[in-house]
């Protein structure tokens, strides 16, 4: 089981109530809490639900929703350009007029013949990163800015 240790730095005084720099262990359970849905649930070390990930589209499986413990959709990840391997992330904002999606990030898989060690390229707003394979290790990667390559 993989462990994730977040390093959180609050950007405003309001965030200090919810965020901590204390090391936390998360458990990913590959079961959906929704009947007849594909997804998983993320628990913290106290056994409390932190996030839910569900796919309600059984046919295409081209869209996944990341939700908080109450089931509110926080972001949607959509698979685009199947042959090229492209995913887009959208932040979901609730309002009186329904839920609106705002573009957040994009991930493109790179062809190994063309890019070599670069596994994929990531764009978050105007910031651009690459996921690069570490030499000698088949499953090890590092994130670098496009200028660092």
Architecture blueprint of SSEs:
Layout: E1 27-29, E2 38-43, E3 49-55, E4 63-68, E5 73-80, E6 86-95, E7 98-109, H1 112-115, E8 118-124, E9 127-133, E10 141-145
Antiparallel strand pairs: 1-2, 2-3, 3-4, 4-5, 5-6, 6-7, 7-8, 8-9, 9-10
Notable characteristics:
ten-stranded antiparallel beta sheet, disordered N terminus, mainly beta, 149 residues, 1 helix
- Give the SSE string: EEEEEEEHEEE
Q: Unreliable segments (pLDDT under 50, ≥5 consecutive)?
A: 1-10
From the N-terminal CA to the C-terminal CA, the straight-line distance is 31 Å
Helix count, DSSP H or I runs of 4 or more residues: 1
Share of residues in strands: over 45%
- Most strands sheet: 10 strands, antiparallel
Kindly provide the radius of gyration, computed on alpha-carbon positions and rounded to a whole number of angstroms.
Answer: 18 Å
- Which class best fits the helix and strand makeup? mainly beta
Q: Round the mean pLDDT to the nearest integer and report it.
A: 75
Dominant shape: globular
* Number of E-type strands: 10
**What fraction, in percent, of the residue positions are helical?**
under 10%
As for the number of domains, it is 2
């Amino acid at each position: 089981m993989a462990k994730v240790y977040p390093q959180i730095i609050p950007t405003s005084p309001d965030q200090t109530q919810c965020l901590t720099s204390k090391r936390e262990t998360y458990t990913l359970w590959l079961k959906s809490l929704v009947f007849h849905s594909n997804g998983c649930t993320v628990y913290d070390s106290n056994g409390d639900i932190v996030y839910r990930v569900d796919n309600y589209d059984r046919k295409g499986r081209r869209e996944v929703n990341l939700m908080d413990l109450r089931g509110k959709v926080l972001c949607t990840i959509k698979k685009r350009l199947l042959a090229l391997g492209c995913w887009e992330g959208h932040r979901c904002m609730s309002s009186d007029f329904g839920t609106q999606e705002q573009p957040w990030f994009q991930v493109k898989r790179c062809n190994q013949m063309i890019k070599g060690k670069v596994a994929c390229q990531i764009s978050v707003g105007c910031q651009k990163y690459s996921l690069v394979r570490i030499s000698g290790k088949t499953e090890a990667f590092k994130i670098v800015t496009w200028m660092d390559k």
